[in-house]
DNA sequence: CGCCTTACTTGACCGCCGTCAAGGTGGCCG
DNA sequence: CGGCCACCTTGACGGCGGTCAAGTAAGGCG
């Protein structure tokens, strides 16, 4: 239980300060959050939120990593997002009210600071900068989701090409033969993020390799033909 | 060009007043919007916004109907949303900045009031009620998109079942043999909304009919087994 | 009233991809 | 050093669904 007189854990305070939703909030407001937070240390694999549960709380990841995913009836996972320290957990659900639209699970030992959904709304009311940041964040999420939905009209190699291209824009580094990137996750996770299974992803990589678009060495991918990759990823298959 | 001295068109003013994003804004603020708006009457089929264009404006549909959709490389449409009078057009893109993530097109003769994206941000800054409404709207959009993405892990009959069930929750009316609904659009549009093509949708309807879940008469659908429909739509296929 | 366009349905075909199965590879620990 | 296990790859196969084609039904207009 939170103790109003206590001094917040320093790691919790630091993580809350780092959260992009209220980066421009006043220091006191963030400290108030930190004191109100219910902090939990959980082992790897813990379920943080469960799809369908009442969304009366949201969290901030203080330490560790987590996945947000949907569990199909057959147990197949569809990965929506990977999160790390400073990222909000289920904040959208807290704003929308109702129920959590997906599951979240710690993929490493993790520390999470839990807050009532009203706390986020209060912050929005009292700090205009927070309202702006929340609106920007939400609007960008909607735009990203639009892109995700569009990508389902592509086949798996094209979806992979799109992912590689987008990632190259973000963290690509020039190398001797092309643009080099690290996959941000295991290939199994990448398969889930692209809405497919490891076997099919493996074939998609083989296809891009055989067509001379990329070279693959474990999680390190060298993009040999950026232009062709971008075209393939936008739905215009080259012949 | 807007004329500051002119009296806004009454239909424009009424549509702006009806827009859910600023329903609780002050009357003066809405009138200011109406005077600033660039109003256009366009014929059926006009492109309102084009995917990839700079998102420097957003609109409010004053009259008529419009579709928001993605155009695949082969010309296939994926329908995201259908809009009517009072609905905002491309407001999310205006908030996110960057470029329009989808296309919008009038499906009837339509009147649109266009506003610069800064006008929406100003309204958010000056009217806290607008900020709240925008955040709620965006959060709900994100939740809905989550559901849409999840549905792509289902086959077409299940996606159709999910749509019918959701619609029954909204506009279903009891009838002699079950719950009766009207499809809100043509079957071709419904196919595009479910991410498929008319032929496959037709087979999906046939399948639900043969399994005794629904009866179909044109755009009027009678749901005979609500429970089975809900189960199928949530991914648990009944045997 | 009859034609024509549009919307929908049904059938045949086939390609993508999910599943099952069998290796292969690398890392960690005893 | 050996063995285990997680991760990945490759092959074979089958089903869902997209495409092409033809046929039917329904609404608009001369």
Q: Which features does this protein show?
A:
DNA-binding; 2 domains; homodimer; Arc Repressor Mutant, subunit A; 239 residues; Jelly Rolls; elongated; four-stranded antiparallel beta sheet; 43% helix; 9 helices; 12 strands; alpha+beta
CATH homologous superfamily descriptor of the largest domain in chain A: Jelly Rolls
Sheet with the most strands of chain A?
4 strands, antiparallel
Tally of discrete structural domains of chain A: 2
> Helix amount of chain A, in percent?
40-55%
Oligomer: homodimer
Give start-end ranges of low-pLDDT stretches of chain A. none
Strand order of the largest sheet of chain A: 1-8-3-6
Per CATH, what is the topology of the largest domain in chain A?
Answer: Jelly Rolls
End-to-end separation of chain A: 63 Å
What does this structure look like?
- Two copies of one chain form a homodimer.
- With 239 residues, chain A is α+β, with helices and mostly antiparallel strands.
- Chain A folds into two domains: 10-150, Jelly Rolls (Sandwich), CATH 2.60.120.10; 153-233, Arc Repressor Mutant, subunit A, CATH 1.10.10.10.
- Chain A has nine helices and twelve strands.
- In chain A, the strands form three sheets. A four-stranded antiparallel beta sheet of chain A has the order 1-8-3-6. In chain A, strands 2-7-4-5 form a four-stranded antiparallel beta sheet.
- In chain A, strand 9 and strand 10 form a beta hairpin.
- In chain A, helix 4 (117-126) crosses helix 5, helix 6 crosses helix 9 (226-233) and helix 7 packs across helix 8.
- The mean pLDDT of chain A is 93.
- The interface between A and B is large, with 41 and 41 residues.
